[in-house]
Design brief:
Layout (H helix, E strand, L loop, with lengths): L3 E8 L13 H36 L6 E5 L4 E10 L2 E5 L5 E5 L3 E14 L4 E7 L5 E6 L2 E7 L3 E6 L8 E12 L4 E13 L3 E13 L6 E13 L4 E12 L4 E17 L3 E16 L6 E16 L5 E11 L7 E14 L2 E12 L10 E12 L1
Antiparallel strand pairs: 1-22, 2-3, 2-6, 3-4, 3-10, 4-5, 6-7, 6-10, 7-8, 8-9, 11-12, 12-13, 13-14, 14-15, 15-16, 16-17, 17-18, 18-19, 19-20, 20-21, 21-22
């Protein structure tokens, strides 16, 4: 289990006051409260689950650490192998804490625990890690070696856990900024939960941004998304998703999306991931000062690109692009782009930068803004 916390600042375009004939400010507030109640209820439940994960960390960390890590310089370290992800092996020890070891520096691993192992070609193996030659992993199941793999060709490795809490990774980022001159206050939260088994993965992501400024309307943006993944051989996967979004900068009270699709990792190494996916979505939207919901069917297609490096300071950048053309409203399409950059400063201290762009070519609400852009920065500590 991994928890991350961050403090930083945000930058978003300001939204001026809007005037809607026949509607008062009180009516607007009542409408907004009614339509965002469900989203904030889900937010509170997510926060409760994150709290459970945080308090469970101490008890889960008491397991015996008997795995052996042999580095390319000959050093032997006894501890507990947890994961290999994005070119870094996470290895817990009793005396020197949790280590993040660059995968190319690993010569051998041994563990009696069970792992799910994936190669750069998409092949998957499950078993414990037996003694092997330098530069190789020996995967053993029921006392029989089922595969001998080159360490350089292994890109993912996750310990197979039997309890729900032990299968969860989570993160929490918080950003805040204040400008006295115009009483500009901005606050943002990003949270994530990921639960993984041998056959599937469930991720829940939540982000919210709240901003106030003198002589301007409040800015509120919230997004809650759950994605279910199931992977196949040769780097193919299918996914199902459900999301709820609110953004008063776009006059959007609530958008709910349900969909699914199929995808493929075109390239996956210990420094780069490049994947494509496509599918169908059902989209239901409620806009400000419009009591009628707008329902539509959308095609969807997207790209995810990640690059990570360990030269000097550890850096990681991930860009996700989603294009959703409407199948029931010809000519309309939505575009969503998120870019996250994170750089390790020292130890578990890091600096991060996030950019997002939301675009709607033809919003159903007349005169509604077509795009929203923002930047958030943070300095955080992971533990």
């Amino acid at each position: 289990m991994r928890i991350a916390c961050a403090l930083g600042s945000t930058l978003t375009p300001r939204v001026g006051k809007s005037v809607y004939p026949g509607s008062t400010l009180i009516e607007l507030q009542q409408r907004m409260n009614a339509r965002t109640f469900i989203m904030w209820k889900l937010v509170l439940r997510l926060a409760s689950l994150l709290s459970v994960c945080i308090f469970a960390t101490a008890s889960l960390s008491q397991a015996a650490k008997t795995d052996l890590l042999i580095l390319d310089n000959g050093n032997n370290i006894v501890g507990e192998v947890t994961t290999l992800q994005r070119g870094k092996l996470t290895f817990k020890t009793d005396n020197i804490g949790t280590l993040s070891v660059e995968w190319p520096h690993v010569s051998e691993l041994r563990s009696t625990n069970r792992f799910l192992i994936e190669t750069e070609h998409g092949r998957k193996f499950s078993g414990s890690l037996a003694k092997a030659s330098a530069g190789q992993l020996s995967v053993e199941s029921d006392g029989v070696v089922v595969a001998t793999l080159e360490i350089s060709g292994v890109v993912n490795m996750y310990r197979v856990e039997h309890t729900f809490l032990s299968r969860i990774d989570s993160s929490l980022d918080v950003g805040y900024s204040y400008t006295q001159q115009n009483a500009d206050t901005q606050f943002n939260i990003n949270a994530a939960l990921r639960e993984r088994t041998e056959k599937r993965q469930l991720t829940i992501n939540f982000s919210t941004l709240f901003s106030t400024q003198e002589d301007a309307d409040e800015t509120r943006r919230s997004d809650l998304t759950g994605v279910f993944y199931k992977r196949f051989e040769r780097k193919w996967f299918y996914l199902g998703l459900a999301s709820a979004e609110q953004n008063n900068g776009l006059d959007l009270d609530l958008r709910t999306v349900f969909g699914g699709g199929i995808g493929h990792e075109l390239y996956h190494t210990n420094s780069t991931i490049f994947a494509l996916f496509t599918g169908l979505n059902y989209n239901r939207e409620l806009y400000a000062f419009n009591d009628e919901s707008v329902n539509s069917l959308e095609a969807s297609g997207g790209v995810e690109f990640s690059y990570f490096t360990f030269d000097g300071m550890t850096s990681e950048i991930t860009t996700r692009l989603l294009l959703a053309p409407s199948l029931t409203d010809a000519g309309r399409f939505r575009l969503k782009v998120d870019t996250d950059f994170r750089q390790k400063i020292i130890g578990d201290l890091y600096w991060s930068l996030n950019l997002y762009e939301l675009f709607d070519s033809r919003p159903p609400q007349p005169d509604a803004p077509r795009n929203d852009f923002g930047i958030t920065t943070s300095v955080g500590w992971s533990f």
